[in-house]
Specification:
Number of helices: 24
Distance between the termini: 108 Å
Helix content: 40-55%
Order of helices and strands: HHEHHHHHHHHHHHHEEEHHHHHEEHHHHH
């Protein structure tokens, strides 16, 4: 019996998500600090011969130099010149996916904000923002429920509910007040015998755990020594700082910078305010004149060499995108500077924290008419220089806890040494300034700064 073979055609339609490389580059440039941007610009200049600095850039390459780079085989390479064919630029724009060109840079705050917004859909946005801002870089919460309730004008029960929701967020252990609670949160889903014993040890035998008194632990639970050792390995394998894994990364590898260089300078004189965006900007770079001249010559030819035309066009387009990204970064930073002058005029003029007005990145983004993630990229890990010359991180504008801590430091710095202020007195002074905090909150911030109590300060 003969077999029958049928042939046919089918047509499939679909959509794919792609982001313009311009958007990706703009986001990357916006996220960089001044020092990182300098490194990024230097790297781009080294990689792109069509881009040069205006101030100290090298002399424009001659036509012969460009031809030597682009077409060493007289612009008409034969099929035998395999190395030249391999080095020529390939037209793969249609194959490039935006996911391959960018990296995830969500900070811990972004990660927690997304989770809490889903866990607390009916809670005020200010409560979520305040709670997220109270989590430090290591993942520990630095505020008390009473403080959050007073600051956000919600009930104590609602604030406590928000704290409990925070402790259920990823990464495991985030939202804890101390190391013991952090480890307990990471062990709440214990399954194996070793994990269950580790949870009991952390919860009930903290002193023995710190002293590594395994004999007392084994005697108390009457378990084999091997199980106790396995439980200790589980505890040692926990993460004491769950927030550090979400430290933001950028496209450039870098070494830690010890000096805070301002990315935005707000200066005031008799003529008014001036806003300066430090680091390289649109006006510091230009297209290489040799490449621009060669493009005009190629466009004037009736039959220009395809490979050279593609090379010159691609590098000039890349240089244009880079210069445009720098321009967009500078414009947004200046808009943020103008916004701070208008919204935080008292603080940026004097540097006194009592003039700080509560502000969130979400609110700033709405007022500027942009996305919150854009404001986050523009202000994350960056510094601003105030009119008095003080350099402060942008975080002081978005973390109310920092404001309270600085105010307590200022009050303690001006107190009478012969009659030190008690925590209750400091709380009343803050209340008179319109800042409601509990006495225990004052005590916590004072302990964090390693400041003695009023009684010990007087005796000292």
């Amino acid at each position: 019996m003969a077999r029958r073979i049928d042939f046919g055609q089918t047509l499939r339609t679909g959509t794919t998500l792609r982001i313009d490389p311009k958007v990706i580059l703009s986001s990357q440039v916006l996220e960089l600090s001044q020092v990182e941007l300098e490194q990024f610009v230097e790297s781009e200049i080294n990689e792109n011969p069509a881009l040069e600095r205006i101030d100290d850039g090298p002399s424009a390459p001659s036509q012969d130099e460009i031809l030597k780079i682009v077409a060493p085989g007289e612009l008409s390479p034969s099929g035998e010149c395999h190395e030249l064919w391999r080095s020529l630029p390939k037209d793969t724009a249609s194959e490039v996916d935006w996911v391959e060109l960018t990296a995830m840079t969500d900070s811990l705050a972004d990660h927690l904000r997304a989770q809490l917004s889903a866990k607390l859909p009916s809670s005020p946005a200010l409560l979520v923002e305040y709670l997220v801002g109270s989590v430090n870089e290591r993942g520990y919460v630095t505020s008390e429920p009473e403080e959050v309730a007073l600051a956000c004008h919600v009930s104590l029960e609602e604030a406590q509910e928000a704290f409990e929701a925070l402790k259920t967020c990823e990464p495991l252990g985030v939202g804890a007040a101390d190391l013991k609670e952090c480890l307990n949160l990471q062990l709440r889903f214990a399954q194996s015998d070793a994990e269950k014993l580790a949870r009991l040890i952390v919860r009930n035998d903290w002193d023995e755990l710190v002293a590594k008194d395994l004999r007392s632990i084994r005697k108390r639970y009457r378990v084999p020594a091997e199980l106790v050792e396995s439980a200790m390995e589980v505890i040692i394998g926990l993460n004491p700082f769950p927030g550090e894994g979400y430290a933001p990364a950028t496209v450039q590898s870098r070494e830690p910078v010890s000096t805070a260089y301002p990315d935005l300078v707000l200066h005031r004189d008799e003529s008014g305010w001036t806003i300066d965006v430090t680091g390289p900007g649109q006006g510091s770079l230009r297209l290489a004149r040799g490449y621009e001249r060669r493009r005009q010559e190629l466009e004037a030819m009736s039959r220009p060499p395809k490979d050279e035309k593609r090379h010159v066009g691609e590098f000039l387009e890349r240089a244009n995108r880079f210069i445009e990204a720098l321009s967009q970064r500078g414009l947004l930073m200046r808009r943020i500077g103008q916004y701070l002058i208008e919204r935080q005029h008292g603080f940026v003029s004097t540097g006194e924290y009592r003039f700080l007005v509560p502000l969130t990145r979400c609110q700033m983004a709405q007022d500027l008419g942009t996305h919150e993630s854009t404001v986050s990229r523009a202000t994350n890990r960056k510094f601003v220089q105030l009119a008095n010359g003080e350099v402060v991180p942008f975080e002081v504008f978005f973390k109310p806890a920092l404001r309270v801590q600085k105010l307590i430091e200022e009050i303690l710095a001006t107190e009478n040494p012969d009659s030190p202020l008690s925590d209750e007195s400091i709380a009343r002074i803050l209340d008179a300034q319109g800042i409601k905090v509990a006495r225990r909150t004052v005590n916590k911030y004072r302990d964090r700064n390693r400041t003695l109590s009023s009684r010990r300060r007087k005796s000292a």
